[in-house]
Design a protein that fits this description.
With about 300 residues, the protein is α/β, with parallel strands linked by helices. It contains 14 helices and 12 strands. The strands form 3 sheets. The protein has a 4-stranded parallel β-sheet, with helices on both faces. A 4-stranded parallel β-sheet has the order 6-5-7-8, sandwiched between helices. It is globular. It starts with a helix and ends with a helix.
Amino acid sequence: MNSEQLHERIAALKRERDAVILAHNYQLPEVQSVADHLGDSLDLSRTAASSPHRVIVFCGVHFMAETANLLAPDKVVLLPEPASGCPLADMVTPAGVRGLRAAHPDAAVVGYINTPAAVKAELDIVCTSANALQVVESLSQDEVIFVPDKYLGGYVARRTAKRIIPWNGYCPTHMHIRLEDVTAVRRMHPDAPVMVHPECTFDVQDAADVVLGTGGMIAYVRTSSARTFIVGTEVGMCHRLKTLFPDREFVPAATGAVCPNMKRNTLAKIACSLENLQPRIVVDEALRSRAHAALTRMLAVTER
């Protein structure tokens, strides 16, 4: 099928299956074009939980679809490409978390939402890039184990009096954004604010005007008077921003900041997934209740 035929087939299958398509901001433009909702992983999972539709097609990576299943266990959650993993999420294990907790028994354990459900089940509370500092500050403990991203953990450590004990994880895609890239792009666009994700290295964070998750970047552009922005995150975000703000220009801080896993979902795979209602993402119930508890604690903090 060509692109037009795939669009028509997907639209028909959505009606037949009572389905909604959710797509992360880093997805391919063709995938973003058929999505009913676009956003970051938590926004989309919340949408999944509140959606009236029976079937959720989650165009993201595996931990995101798991999170949707944690929050919406009564829905059918599909991940069109099950090989869409997350190297950062895979850098931490349940055994590793238990080991750190044993070594620091008085510390709270905070985990980035970019973790598998089996790891979330070991956490005291989950956080996102947008609310990590708020979550850490909400805790009574003075010591906080933070998994798995050391740069997001370090971002928090610089802004809190609490002692952060970071796991040594990182996002390979954000490692492609280097200080020299930011410097070079800023030289070409001297009036453009530099927005970078807190998964970037500390020297890149320090060189930016603002450090924000993807939702924060959208909010920043919305209220800014600037016409051009340098975007220091996965390059798919530039397409998302240009769609929202067609009168502005968005320049990637590094054209090599491409997440291959995020690009695995395609129109053909979405159509196939809807045809067969596969592959389904289902979290084991014993894990689900514990992981859901850590997510619920985060939501209680951020919705106060």
